[in-house]
């Protein structure tokens, strides 16, 4: 990425300009999108290794825009975060995810991703508590997935928000563990219940001894801290075999199932013999 400075003006190269105009289009489209009809959720099973059964599902957002087509959450969530629509999106999706969770057996949990903004104010988290209470779903069946960026800007407020959710009975998972800069300090400072080991470690596990060592160490850390470990992004039988020798508790990835529509979760729960 090359920048040319001319008379104090920063001129981007063509690639950067394309990226910027794409961001602008997505942002403007999101601003006026009918979120109620255009947003949906899919659910990816989280598998308990010992029983090979789905212990829960992670809800993942999908945006099918009639004008620009499907947009990945990796693209539109950060933009919603930036333009302020994220609060509305989180509430809408949490309400729906809880409706789906209510159709599952009582021992199946829901994992739901929160954005930095969702934890940034007391009002914000109280609205989430209101949605959980109104849903009638036992808070102990809900885990909120947070990333390090969610607690980076205002640690005290984020920590307070997380404590409110924990007191209600919800679990808290630190997502994408190992990709940030201060993971260990957060393990130490936040009331976590789970750690999700990032899929990037799994990608290299069959050819890199260091990746095996890292995953092994994280699993040992989790055991020591009494945190549940979930390894993400498991794509092959080979990867699963290695992870199993390391004693991993839960896994998630295309090897077991892709994210699926709500209707398919019921068949998946039956097919693998859960409750
Ligand atoms: P994430 O929370 O780390 O979610 C895991 C992502 O990995 C998902 O991508 C999932 O579809 C994908 N994945 C699952 N198994 C595999 C695998 O075996 N291999 C590979 N290569 N990928 C796998 P997705 O659905 O595109 O979501 C991307 C990101 O967008 C999520 O990453 C999360 O950070 C964010 N996101 C998604 N839904 C929501 C939401 O409702 N709220 C918020 N705040 N963020 C969301
Ligand atoms: Ca996640
Ligand atoms: Ca993740
Ligand atoms: Ca991620």
Summary keywords:
single chain, 275 residues, alpha/beta, eight-stranded mixed beta barrel, two-stranded antiparallel ribbon, binds ligand C2E, binds calcium ion, EAL domain-containing protein
What is the CA-atom radius of gyration, in angstroms?
20 Å
Globular, elongated, flat, extended or rod-shaped: what is the shape?
A: globular
Helix/strand order? EEHHEEEHHEHEHHEHEHHEHEH
Residue runs with pLDDT of under 50 for 5 or more positions: none
Largest sheet composition: 8 strands, mixed, barrel
Order of strands in the sheet with most strands: 3-4-6-7-8-9-10-11
| Overall residue-averaged pLDDT value | 92
C-alpha termini separation: 53 Å
Class derived from helix and strand content: alpha/beta
* Beta-strand percent range: 15-25%
The ligands found in this model are: ligand C2E, calcium ion
Count of beta strands: 11
How many alpha or pi helices? 12
Portion of residues in helices?
40-55%
Organism: Rhizobium terricola
Protein name: EAL domain-containing protein
Domain EAL: 23-273
Notes on the structure:
This protein has 275 residues and is an alpha/beta fold. Helix content is 48%, strand content 21%. The protein has 12 helices and 11 strands. The chain has helices at residues 14-32, 35-38, 73-83, 86-101, 122-135, 148-152, 155-168, 183-189, 199-203, 209-225, 237-245, 262-271; strands spanning 4-6, 9-11, 39-48, 53-65, 69-71, 109-113, 142-146, 171-177, 194-197, 228-231, 250-251. α4 runs parallel beside α5 (122-135). The protein binds ligand C2E and calcium ion (CA) (3 copies). One calcium ion is lined by residues 175-176, 196, 232.
